[in-house]
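Run log, item B.
One chain of 115 residues. Sequence copied directly from the ordering sheet:
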Amino acid sequence: MAEHSAEILKVVSEIRELIRLMAEPAIAERDRKLRSELRRIVGGSTLKANSVLLMDGSRPQKDIRRETKINQGDLSTLVKRLRESKLVEGDGKQPLVIISIPANCFESETTDERG
C-alpha cells in the first residue's frame, strides 16, 4: 500500500510541476512588479540570489548562510529589505519568499560574488 501511495504522490508531483511550467507566463505577469523589486534588492550579487532561492520557509537563516557562504550581516539586511517590500512572510528567522521564483530569475542580473 505504501508503495502505491508513493507512486501516486510521484505522479501528482510531476503533474504539479507541469502545471507550474504551463502557468509560468501568467504567474510572471501577476508577479512582474514583485519580481522586479526582488531583482532590485538582490542587485548583482550571486550570494544574495542563491540565498533568496533557498528562502522556502524550511531553512533558518543560519542554514542559508552555511549553504551559500553569505555574510551574516548581509543576509540579515537582505531579509529585512525583503520583509519591508512584503516579499517574505513570517518573522524572518525562517524566511519564506511569497512569490514563485523561476530558476532563471537572476541569470542576467548576477555577475559576481559581492555580498
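Observations after the first pass:
- Residues 41 and 81 are 7 Å apart (CA to CA).
- DSSP finds five helices and two strands in the chain.
Flagged for discussion on Thursday.
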